Amino acid sequence: MTHVSLSDLKAQAKRLRAHLAADGTEISHSRALELIAHQHGARDWNTLNARVAQRNAPFRPGIGDQVSGHYLGQPFTGLVHQVASRSGTEGVQLTLQFDTPVDVVQFDSFSSFRSRVHGFVGPDGRSPRKTSDGVPHLVIDQMA
After folding, report:
1. How far is CA 91 from CA 79, 88, 143, in A?
2. With bands split at pLDDT 50, 70 and 90, how would you rate the model's confidence at 6?
3. Which residues contact 65 (CB under 8 A, 6 or more apart)?
4. Could you give the count of Cα atoms lying within 13 Å of 139 in the half-sphere of its Cβ?
5. Cα–Cα distance between 20 and 34 in angstroms, integer?
6. pLDDT at 56 over 70
7. How far does Cα 56 stand from its chain's mean position?
C-alpha cells in the first residue's frame, strides 16, 4: 500500500459512496470504509486504520531494537546500540551496529566496510543529510 493518510482513505470512501449512489446503489458510510479497506488488502476497516496509524507513527527506536534499512544506499540489518535526543529537533541521534559490515564505497576497485555507524534520523526514520545524488545517508525501513 502506498503511503496514504486516514483522511485520504475516508475521502476515497466518500467518493465511492457518492459514485455508487449516482448509479443507483445506496451503501452506508461504514460499508464504503470496509470496501476501501478490502481494496487496500486489509481484512476490515479497523485493520487498515491500525496499519496506517502504525506506519504514520513517529520513529521511536530503543536500545537493542533490531532494525533494517539503507546506509549510504546499501542495505543493512542491525541493532540500535545508542539513542540520544537532539535538542530543538524531533529526531534522534543513533549508533547502529550492523549484523554484517556494509561496504559504503560504490567503486569496483575499492571497498570500505562499516560495522558501526552514527547518524541522525527524523521522526520518519530518514536522515535529513543526503548524498550527492539525493539519497538520504541513513534510512530505517523497519523495526522488528
Report:
1. 18, 9, 16
2. confident
3. 79, 80, 143, 144
4. 12
5. 14
6. no
7. 7
